[in-house]
TrEMBL record:
Protein name, as recorded: Trehalase
Protein's organism: Iamia majanohamensis
Transmembrane regions: none
Lineage: Bacteria, Bacillati, Actinomycetota, Acidimicrobiia, Acidimicrobiales
Alphabetized Pfam families for the sequence: Glyco_hydro_15, TREH_N
GO molecular function per UniProt: alpha,alpha-trehalase activity
Length: 598
């Protein structure tokens, strides 16, 4: 197994996902959806919980990896004393079947490659029945069936299947692992080389649509490709990450399932996609949103399943030992039942920006949703909530939540004014002004610094968003004071934590690493505050935290110098994109992806 989160690379067919380690082992694979039970789960346990290894036997002197430009087709090149071999991995996009294909290519000399396949459906818990038929081996357990097609014959060795194959320069050996419902016929196999070619071309065509140039154009395109890889194509829903239970603290309990669609995360993603020129994806997400929140306003959730599912019960999987012993391993997410008032602002802001960009209609269902959400917000904005960070402690009046309530009323007013629609605009203006005055009275301390919750003293990195959403001008003294206080008091080796555990009871034991999105927010806040050189220096440092194929997790451990949290994380890549776009506009004279023109 790969020892660090950054040792993995993402494969995606825009419906499900896999993680491949530098050692050539696929340690995580879900079919048929991102949130389906995994059939390879070594990532959260051991090899006995399922993996698929293809790697040179014996000594490997160097490993180099890359995605083919603009794609999620991965090439891993291994150098050995006997020669050089490359493995090409991908999950073919929009084929008739869901599958992973792997091709071994001999580049120099003669290299013996070992193959080990351990299929364990239902999160590594079930040993399947296995049947061979010619070049195919069929693994069946309950509702799942996986079929391996290859000229290489894998033999049973205990509870795994193994083989060795020697490849010389110019030779190739192919493997196809396809999933299908076990009650349906085995799908016909496809030519692996043709699948790789078509998938490469599909991703290249998608990436070519990117309209972003600038100093970090390739970096932005790479991150937008990751965001596309986290999009559930059948519905347009965008999951927060491809994994569950990768820890925010090694050995700790802060292990959550992120394979769902947070309205907040998907909203930021929408804005990045619009800026990048991907209006089709923005339209699909907008439609997903309208379907997901359909129902009474008081039933709106903060998160949903990829198809808009509402029930996401949280449970623990005791048979898994956890990533580096980090338990419990959880699936589902109880946060779906929380009250997070900030979501109203993020959704209404995104809908307004989408409408202003010509993505979707401005009346009809969209306007009905805006009015319904504002009506609900009118009822709840004065209540304490669970906040942006989904704390599992006592509810409180989080300042960021109130700021985003102001955003929601503000964007509803703008929607009515910009598009000439009827609504109780005078009442919304009064509420907007009331929220604004209350935040400035109770959410700012004696130093003139925005604080985490009303009448408190603790800091919170979410308050870096105050200038980005237009609540105060970027040059306001309270904005500057907040930026400086967060840099001084919420900084670990120059990077930003969300809050200090000793000052915030979040209902959990232990601590966590720096939250990468917060550092990206600091980049934006500095740039808008006129400190562009500082912003660019921090941004360049954050870029260096990406792994060798350009991926970021949720958090970073500055003491151990390694990634933490679920991976790859949409929020982190969104921050990367937004910062690049803002810095290219030189300090925020125009709108950033997350900021609003005034």
């Amino acid at each position: 197994m790969a020892s660090r989160i950054e040792d993995y690379a993402l494969l995606s067919d825009t419906e499900s996902a896999a993680l491949v380690g530098r050692d050539g082992s696929i340690d995580w694979l879900t079919f048929p959806r991102f949130d389906s039970p995994s059939c390879f789960t070594a990532l959260l346990g051991t090899a006995a919980n399922g993996r698929w290894l293809i790697a040179p036997r014996g000594e490997v002197t160097e490993v180099r990896r890359r995605y083919r430009p603009g794609t999620l087709v991965l090439e891993t090149t291994s150098h050995t004393p006997d020669g050089v071999v490359r493995v090409v991995d991908c999950m073919p996009v929009r084929d008739q079947t869901l599958q992973v294909v792997r091709r071994i290519e001999g580049l120099e000399g003669r290299v013996t490659v070992q193959v080990e396949l351990v299929v364990r459906p239902d999160y590594g818990s079930i040993v399947p029945w296995v049947r061979r038929d010619g070049d195919q081996q069929r693994f069946v357990a309950g509702p799942d069936a996986l079929v391996l097609t290859s000229p290489v014959r894998l033999e049973p060795d205990g509870w795994r299947h193994v083989a060795e194959v020697t490849v010389a320069e110019g030779e190739t050996v192919d493997f196809e692992l396809a999933w299908h419902p076990s009650n349906e016929p085995t799908p016909s196999s496809e030519d692996v080389g043709e699948s790789i070619r078509r998938t490469t071309e599909w991703w290249e065509r998608w990436s070519e649509r990117c309209t972003t140039a600038g100093r970090w154009g390739e970096v932005v395109r790479s991150s937008l490709t990751v965001l596309k890889g986290l999009t559930y194509a059948p519905t347009g829903g965008i999951v927060a990450a491809a994994t569950t239970s990768l820890p925010e603290e090694l050995g700790g309990e802060r292990n959550w399932d992120y394979r769902y669609c947070w309205l907040r995360d998907a909203t930021f993603t929408l804005l990045a996609l619009i800026e990048g020129g991907y209006t089709d994806e923005a339209v699909a997400w907008r439609r997903w949103l309208l379907r997901a929140v359909a129902g009474r306003p008081d039933q709106v959730q903060i998160m949903y399943g990829p198809a808009g599912e509402r029930r996401l019960p949280e449970m623990e999987l005791p048979w898994l030992s956890g990533y580096e012993g980090s338990t419990p391993v959880r699936i589902g997410n109880a946060a779906h039942g929380q009250l997070q008032i900030d979501v109203f602002g993020e959704v209404l802001d995104a809908l307004h920006q989408a409408a202003a960009a010509g993505v979707g209609d401005t009346d009809g269902d969209a306007w009905a949703l805006v009015r319904a959400l504002v009506d609900r917000l009118t009822e709840v904005w004065r209540e304490p909530d669970d906040g942006i960070w989904e704390v599992r402690g006592e509810r409180r009046h989080f300042t960021h939540s109130k700021v985003m309530a102001w955003v929601a009323f503000d964007r509803a007013i703008r929607w009515a004014e910009d598009f000439g629609l009827d609504g109780p605009v005078d009442r919304w203006r009064a509420l907007r002004d009331e929220v604004h005055a209350e935040v400035l009275e109770r959410g700012v301390d004696r130093r003139g610094v925005f604080v985490q919750s009303y009448d408190g003293t603790a800091l919170d990195a979410s308050l870096l968003l105050v200038p980005l959403v237009g609540f105060l001008p970027p040059e306001d003294a309270r904005v500057t004071a907040t930026i400086d206080a967060i840099r001084d008091e919420l900084s670990e080796d120059g990077l930003v934590v969300r809050y200090r555990q000793e000052h915030t009871d979040d209902g959990l034991a232990g601590e966590e690493g720096v939250f990468l999105l917060c550092s990206f927010w600091l980049v934006q806040a500095l740039a808008l505050n006129g400190r562009v050189e500082e912003a660019e220096a921090l941004y360049e440092r954050l870029l260096r935290l990406r792994n060798d194929v350009g991926l970021l997790a949720e958090e970073w451990d500055p003491h151990e110098g390694r990634m933490l949290g679920n991976f790859p994380q949409a929020f982190s890549h969104i921050g990367l994109v937004e910062c690049a776009m803002l810095l290219d506009k030189r300090g925020g004279t125009a709108r950033a992806a997350g900021s609003r023109e005034r």
